[in-house]
Specification:
Layout: E1 5-6, H1 7-15, H2 17-25, H3 27-30, H4 37-53, E2 60-62, H5 68-79, E3 84-86, E4 89-92, E5 95-98, E6 101-105, E7 110-117, H6 127-140, E8 145-153, H7 165-168, E9 169-173, H8 175-197, H9 220-223, H10 242-249, H11 267-277, E10 282-283, H12 285-293, E11 299-308, E12 322-332, E13 340-345, H13 353-363, E14 370-372, H14 375-388, H15 393-401, E15 403-405, H16 408-411, E16 415-416, H17 426-433, H18 447-458, H19 464-495
Parallel strand pairs: 1-5, 2-3, 7-8, 11-14, 14-15
Antiparallel strand pairs: 3-6, 4-5, 6-7, 8-9, 10-16, 11-12, 12-13
């Protein structure tokens, strides 16, 4: 049997048993792919949120580590009836867990659990089962658990001055819900331990075979060697139609050309399949022409980079509200005119909002369409800026009224190519329409890395020389996003001639 089953591995087991088996027995397979900078940032965010949450409890003692020494220290503090413990470690019957916050109630001679989550709301599929695991283990260790709380960030909190820690978090009493789950979870804990104890690799596919590509486990390819790199799992939004996916998987249909012609699918899904199977490019010239003819010059191609700070960094921000720190802007005064480029990157640890919008005001005029890719995002950011910088409200309203979403041509299926693979992401569209451009040569290749780079830029952990290089890399990435839209529009114009 494995020496331990941690609550983390238990949660992974619930999602895909075979995946966590590899994690324990063949870690070289499980850890084959390194975490991205943004994934690392997510982990760091969780740690940061927990550190802040501890400030609510003034009498806490931190238990460091997960080893036997940490377990013994936990036992000692429990025996001494320490009022509050941070990260106390419990081990019993091969089960292991650390509790975020454990408070002792002298009057009731019982303990209260506080689980801290770096999210704006509770996730019943993960957070509740995580807590039930902890409760079961603590009760196995002889503790009386009377109250169970799930604490998460309060999305209604708006920072004003110093952080109001008490209001930053929202604590939900989930005692009743967790107690109802405990019996089921206890059974699953035993099952997981038994499953993971085997030294023999579990046969067959993993359970992710019935999930869409975005929900596949880290070892999916190893468990499912018969599934092609581009398969029915990649059909747009197929993960939301589990029954349809199962119909294909159960009869061994993994390739797109094996999808029956009479299978009921959305227009987007059918176009994706047909473009691949028949190597067919769908270009609705009339629809595209109708879209482009309505554009009003000058055209302003703009892209924002933002940072979703879990703990509000500045006044008037809420948890995870996006901080706009950078933009790139191309201006095309008229058809055939020379492109002009402008950019902005805030490089200090202050609220960029005012400087951001003031910079935009210099270059975006009162007339002409503002071209973006996925207008829902940029328009939402603009509205939030207007709330923080009310004097720019009319300007922001003017921008939002003139926004044209270039992605619409692709989401509306006016242009479909097999190499889009059902996606309308600019990262998929650009290589098809403008193959001479590539993000692969850039030091920063996606928005998540750009966001985490900004924290480095405004911090004190890297040298001035490193900051200078990082700034260049960030500017180049954002510039590519906007120039990509320019090139895509140029190619669309050619396609309708």
């Amino acid at each position: 049997m494995p020496a331990t089953l941690s609550k983390t591995d238990y949660i992974l087991f619930r999602e895909c048993p075979k995946n966590v088996w590899y994690k324990i027995h063949k870690p070289d397979i499980y850890y084959k792919s390194e975490l991205s900078d943004f994934e690392k940032h997510i982990i760091e965010t969780g740690n940061e949120v927990e550190l802040v949450a501890r400030q609510i409890f003034s009498d806490g003692v931190l238990i460091e580590g997960r080893d036997e020494a940490a377990r013994k220290l936990t036992e000692e503090y429990i025996t001494k009836r320490q009022p509050t413990l941070f990260q106390p470690v419990f081990f019993k019957d091969s089960f292991l867990a650390a509790v975020d916050v454990l408070k002792f109630n002298e009057k009731l001679n019982s303990h209260t659990i506080y689980e801290i989550k770096a999210s704006n709301e509770a996730d019943k599929k993960r957070h509740y089962y995580d807590l039930a695991f902890q409760v079961n283990l603590l009760r196995k260790c002889g503790l009386k658990i009377e109250e169970i709380n799930l604490s998460h960030l309060n999305s209604d909190y708006v920072r004003s001055g110093a952080l109001d820690i008490a209001n930053l978090f929202k604590s939900d009493d989930v005692t009743s819900e967790i107690n109802k789950l405990c019996e089921k979870v206890d059974l699953e804990m035993t099952q997981a331990l038994k499953y993971l104890s085997s030294e023999t690799e579990p046969p067959g596919s993993c359970c992710c075979i019935y999930k869409g590509r975005s929900n596949h486990c880290t070892t999916f390819n190893h468990s499912n060697p018969n599934v092609p790199k581009y398969s029915v799992h990649d059909i747009s939004r197929i993960g939301l139609s589990k029954k349809k996916l199962a119909e294909l998987i159960d009869v061994g249909r993994f390739h797109l050309h094996e999808v029956p012609e009479d299978m009921k699918l959305s227009t987007n899904q059918r176009n994706q399949i047909d473009s691949h199977v028949f190597d067919r490019v769908l270009i609705n010239q009339g629809k595209i022409r109708g879209e482009l003819e309505n554009l009003v010059y000058p055209l302003y191609f703009v892209d924002y980079e933002t940072f979703p700070s879990a703990i509000p960094m500045f006044d008037d921000f809420s948890p995870y509200q996006q901080i706009p720190f950078q933009y790139s802007l191309y201006v095309l005064e008229s058809l055939g005119a020379k492109l002009k480029h402008f950019e902005f990157l805030h490089d200090s640890a202050t609220d960029p909002s005012k400087a951001f919008v003031e910079s935009l005001q210099k270059y975006i005029g009162k007339a002409g369409n503002v071209i973006v890719w996925s207008k829902k995002f940029e328009c939402a950011i603009n509205k939030q800026i207007a709330e923080r910088v009310p004097e720019a409200g009319d300007f922001i309203e003017s921008i939002n009224s003139r926004v044209y979403d270039l992605m619409d041509i692709f989401t509306k299926q006016h242009y479909v190519h097999k190499d889009f693979k059902g996606s309308t992401s600019i990262k998929k569209v650009l290589p098809v329409l403008a193959p001479e451009l590539s993000y692969k040569e850039l030091a920063i290749q996606e928005g998540g890395t750009a966001a985490s780079s900004w924290i480095k830029l405004i911090g004190n952990e890297i040298s001035s020389e490193e900051k200078s290089q990082l700034k260049k890399d960030m500017l180049e990435y954002c510039k590519m996003d906007t120039f990509a839209m320019v090139r895509i529009l140029e190619e669309l114009e050619k396609a309708i001639k």
